[in-house]
Amino acid sequence: MPLRSFNRDLSCSVLELYSEMDRQTAEFRTATGLRCLPGCGQCCDSATPEVTVIELLPAAEELFSRGEAQQWLERIASIRGTEKCIMYQPDPLIPGNGRCQLYLWRPSVCRLFAFGAMRNKNGKPELVTCRCQKEQIPLLVKGAQEAISGGMAVPSFDSFLLKMVVLEPSLGRQRVPINRDLHLALERYGLTVQLMEAMGPRQRDWEKVII
User: 126 pairs with which residues across the strands?
Assistant: First the structure.
């Protein structure tokens, strides 16, 4: 029987925001010519991003649906909290290349990085780009920033993160390292599943109040 819990409704809302992010970043890439280098995974391999629990609820739901939640919890427990993103899988043959194992459910920072802007201290939108782009396609990066300064629409980190907070303030404010965040999202989703299974016939009455 499909779950209709608070967490699942929230997960669907997050996925809707992700669809909007993807639409905006696709339009921005087309307009500017900016792109990631083929196979490149250096941004994933060189940083430990911080995200909010709400952003990884869709990933948690997906892992539960696959029956892989416990496996991922054990993997997270086996590494330190400051390790690189557990979702990233480096290419065994090409240094710097790799892929995300949960690409369709990746959080905001992974979707917007290199194709989104944040407001600087003067309140102006400034492109958040990567070192590889600056080194390999500097003219495109420069042109994109000039276009943004001239008024071109650009996906906004600030705007989307605020929308996450509005969806559920208790889960959208605090940012923690991504591995810890995935652990928290899996625990939260798993607790809801256990509670609803335990409720049995009374599940429907509780679906609207489980947080």
Answer: 118
Rounded distance, CA 66 to CA 72, Å?
Answer: 11
pLDDT digits over 73-123, tens only?
A: 999 998 876 678 999 999 999 988 999 999 999 999 999 999 999 999 999
Nearest to 189 by CA among 64, 86, 105, 85: 64
Angle at 16 between CA 48 and CA 84, to 5 degrees: 10
Query: Using CA of residue 84, residue 88, residue 89, residue 90, what is the dihedral sign?
Result: negative
- What b/e sequence results for 142-169 when a residue is b if at least 16 CB atoms lie within 10 Å of its CB, and e otherwise? eebbebbeeeeebbbbeebbebbeebbe
Distance CA 69, CA 177 (A): 19
CB 184 within 8 A of CB 77: no
What residue ranges do the domains of the chain occupy? 6-202
Token pair for residue 4?
Answer: 């209709």
User: What SS3 class is residue 5?
Assistant: coil
**What is the Cα gyration radius of the chain?**
19
SS3 150: coil
For strands 88-90 and 50-51, give the pairing: unpaired
